[in-house]
Design a protein that fits this description.
Number of helices: 6
Number of strands: 6
Shape: elongated
Radius of gyration: 35 Å
Distance between the termini: 86 Å
Helix content: 25-40%
CATH topology of the domain at 78-151: 434 Repressor (Amino-terminal Domain)
Oligomer: single chain
CATH class of the domain at 78-151: Mainly Alpha
Strand content: 5-15%
Largest sheet: 3 strands, antiparallel
Structural class: alpha+beta
CATH superfamily of the domain at 78-151: lambda repressor-like DNA-binding domains
Order of helices and strands: EEEHHEHHHHEE
């Protein structure tokens, strides 16, 4: 017989557990493992088919299924989007309060450049900044969204649409 650890051909081997693996070892290599005691196979089978283990397996499969589902990252905000003309709304509200861009920026602990960029719509504010602006100016910058776009906010765009690029056959 051949020792599965050293590869020597020996007259007899002994089953041993080495780091969780059952190996047939020669007497010299058997000192590196523990003696292997085969258990009763019927006991192992009955423990796997127990009701509690089935419940655990079912629960783990359900959690795995939930974890593996694709998520819609846009549905997290509840269908609320920033209005399209947010810059103009912020500028008009600031001017209505009689504040310069610098004074308003100081009042909400932001830089003047940030306010100027928001008003010119070169910077899209994050949720935290949107809530600051809404609170300071008493305005709404977010509106409910439908499949077609934002409801109740913004102007209708007169620019090009996807329909301008689609060729249709005329009969």
């Amino acid at each position: 017989m051949i020792c599965e650890m050293c590869g020597n051909n020996v007259p007899a081997t002994r089953a041993c557990m080495v780091e969780g693996t059952m190996l047939n070892l020669c007497p010299n290599c058997s000192k590196f493992g523990d003696s292997y005691k085969p258990s009763n196979r019927s006991e192992e089978r009955s423990s796997y088919s127990g009701g509690t283990n089935n419940a655990v397996i079912k629960e783990r499969l359900e959690r795995r299924e939930k974890r593996m589902q694709t998520r819609d990252i846009y549905s997290a905000n509840g269908g609320v989007e920033l209005i399209t003309d947010y810059g103009e709304v912020v500028r008009k509200a600031r001017e209505k309060k009689g504040l310069t861009a610098e004074e308003f920026a100081k009042s909400i602990n932001e830089k003047k450049g940030t306010i100027v960029k928001i008003e010119s719509q070169t910077l899209v504010p994050d949720d935290k900044l949107i809530s600051k602006l809404e609170k300071a100016l008493s305005i709404k910058l977010k509106a409910a969204m439908t499949d077609g776009g934002v409801v109740g906010g913004g102007q209708k765009s007169q620019g090009m649409t996807l329909g301008n690029f689609i060729k249709t056959e005329k009969k």
